[in-house]
């Protein structure tokens, strides 16, 4: 277990990232390739990723370079997921290139003691080797992570909307209380479930605050930097719903769910989701029963226009990028 200790200043400086962290999503997606745990939630991605890696000639690099350096284990090097790279792959990979050689040697040594490091890992102390390595990261990201960028962004927007409600109802402590089953708020400590093979440890924020980063490809236990001196960041899993269709937004290929959007009540329901709405709030806005609002939400979700997450006893509906674009076009407002 990881215990994150908060002070008053830390509560004021805690935030939730507004976009995916691309270098972290690379790491988390590599872990998905190494485990069957949660495979049902990524079945369509897994099939597509294997095909894309094969077609782009990246399978050998995956086996010999990426998987050995990002093991799904109690540790992999912190420098591979630099802080302050949320929403910016170029910034993240530039930080990897700029990593001091001594730090690389120290972290590779920890990896070697923990699960074993690849024999070539020490070559990353050379600038040219790091540049070649981040070129591989960009190629991998383009092949298997970038195509799911809109889905990841939509899920993060839903998560932020749900946590915003907790913030409005109970302040930062209310927000921390709703982070999911792997994180438990017991003031003034956030208890974080960690892999069984990882030792218990404490992280004292010391006034630095905490950046919470929802992750599309992370599954199960949240992850923080092993080095407590690094900026406090906690990546945690977005809960995936079971039995998602293979389509990126769960819509039928023939477009019938989108045609079902025609009608006043459904348009009002879509508009209410622009600021986040529960099913009951959709019903009140559209002037329909709760069961009718639920059917409207299902049609909107099947058409890929909203996404739905659980928020305590209720569910919260928010727009996907496609839904937001449709709403903007219908009102004539710029993006």
Task: Describe how the helices and strands are arranged.
Blueprint lengths: L1 E4 L2 H5 L2 E2 L5 H12 L9 H13 L3 H11 L19 H9 L3 H14 L12 H19 L3 H29 L5 E4 L2 E4 L8 E4 L6 E5 L7 E2 L8 E5 L18 H4 L4 H9 L4 E2 H8 L3 H13 L3 E6 L2 E6 L1 H11 L4
Parallel strand pairs: 1-5, 2-6, 6-8
Antiparallel strand pairs: 1-4, 3-4, 7-8, 9-11, 10-11
Helix pairs in contact: 2-7, 5-7, 10-11, 10-12, 11-12
Description of the structure:
The chain has three domains: 2-17 and 150-237, no CATH class; 22-148, no CATH class; 256-331, Orthogonal Bundle (Arc Repressor Mutant, subunit A). The chain is an alpha/beta fold and 335 residues long. The model is unreliable at 242-259 (pLDDT under 50). The longest helix is centred in the middle third of the chain and has 29 residues, at 149-177. The radius of gyration is 21 Å and the shape is globular. A hairpin with a 2-residue loop joins strand 10 (306-311) and strand 11. It has a four-stranded mixed sheet, covered by helices on one side. The protein has helices at 8-12, 22-33, 43-55, 59-69, 89-97, 101-114, 127-145, 149-177, 256-259, 264-272, 279-286, 290-302, 321-331; strands at residues 2-5, 15-16, 183-186, 189-192, 201-204, 211-215, 223-224, 233-237, 277-278, 306-311, 314-319.
